[in-house]
Amino acid sequence: MAGIDPYGAGIRWHWTTPRAQDILRRRALSGILQLYRELHSLPQQELADLLGYSTSYVSRIETGSRTITDIGALRHIAERLGLPPHCLGITDDTDGDHQLVIQLADSVLRLAESARQSGQATTAVAELWPLVARLEARTADGHVDVDTLRLLARARVGLGVALGHVLPEERLAVAARWTGKGLSVARRLGDPGLHAHALRHHGNELRKSGLHHRALDRLGQARDTARTATERAEAVVLLARAAGAAGNTAVFDAAFDEGRRLLDDVAPTALFSEFTLHEVRLRGLLGTGRVAEAVRQLDQAPAAGLTATSQWRIIAAITAGEVLLRKGDPTGAAHQLSAAVDGATLHRLPHQLQRVLRAGRRLPEVRERADGALERLRAEIAA
Question: What is the pLDDT of residue 14?
Fold first, then answer.
């Protein structure tokens, strides 16, 4: 009996249900004991044995005819059941510190997102690592309240996305693992918006890792479960991107067409705009073997606009360089790819430099600059 782990796989999540959270918020010992027995299929006698109490005493607690206010007794119950002390109204030395972390977490997440979108992904990683570590430690100690888990899901996803900017291609699976860990929490919490957010970002990191089938699955789910037009638009643009990378013409065309229709209904965001959709179109046309169409569409590029991030501008320059090379314009391609090298170096984006190396394989000067910048970034990452 002492070996029961109430926070093991499966059992942990029962404490996040609305019923359980209501019981925990009320610090209702009677309800906690009843729910604990229900989760573990324990008769009252076995719970009494675990606590070292008589069955009649446990029965009186569960019916509410016996209340316990002694802190030592409450701590004993928490320890025997493997529950965090705060569930029984007992504060410990870490509670005050954790409350401060919770209060500041939203600000940290917003600042990290702003830093990443402004081209400072390394700053975002530096902000998110300690927050994730604190939240991970808190949940490992058994603090599974919904607010903490929701923040943990957001922080894991945010960390994965930021890592997906700063890691070289051979290590991008790390970013996908972090967004996947965020998704594993989000799907359990019954928060559709958080779940869709995690699906979008995990799908995109899977694409970057070359796991195209899984990426299409996650991004298709994100599109289908979107609650708003903006959520759907952001899922659609990533789905089109993944389908193009996978060479899936049918899914690419359908997603791109839907994205174009949504332009009239959705205000531009950092992820979804006429600018990002055009880049995705060019790359998807190349990925699905329609080079001539990509060349025709190149000159129709819209202005970047205020919502376009540094990352997207660099991505668009590389894509334009690829199309120009296919068009037979090495001079124009070298100009675009050189600009991309400068941007990727400034913002420390190694996998974009790797993409330049592949795109500019027939441009020795561009390759030399990109290779040198990549080696310097790899040395910084190793350090």
Answer: 62
Note whether residue 205 is domain-resident: yes
The domain that holds 164 is classified in CATH as 1.25.40.10
- Which residues, 6+ apart, have CB-to-CB distance to 312 below 8 Å? 270, 275, 276, 279, 304
Q: Could you tell me the pLDDT band of residue 347, with boundaries at 50, 70 and 90?
A: very high
Same domain, 86 and 105: no
CATH number at residue 82: 1.10.260.40
Structure tokens belonging to residue 356? 């330049």
> Rounded to whole angstroms, how far apart are CA atoms 317 and 314?
5
CB-facing half-sphere around the CA of 56: CA atoms within 13 A:
0
Mean pLDDT over residues 333-360, rounded? 95
Query: Could you tell me if 114 and 193 lie in one domain?
Result: yes
Nearest to 83 by CA among 192, 138, 152, 6: 6
- 195, containing H or E segment: helix 192-208
Same domain, 158 and 197: yes
Instruction: Report yes or no on whether pTM surpasses 0.85.
Output: no
The answer to whether position 181 is within a domain reads yes
pLDDT in tens, 211-236: 999 999 999 999 999 999 999 999 99
Residues 176 and 103 in one domain: yes
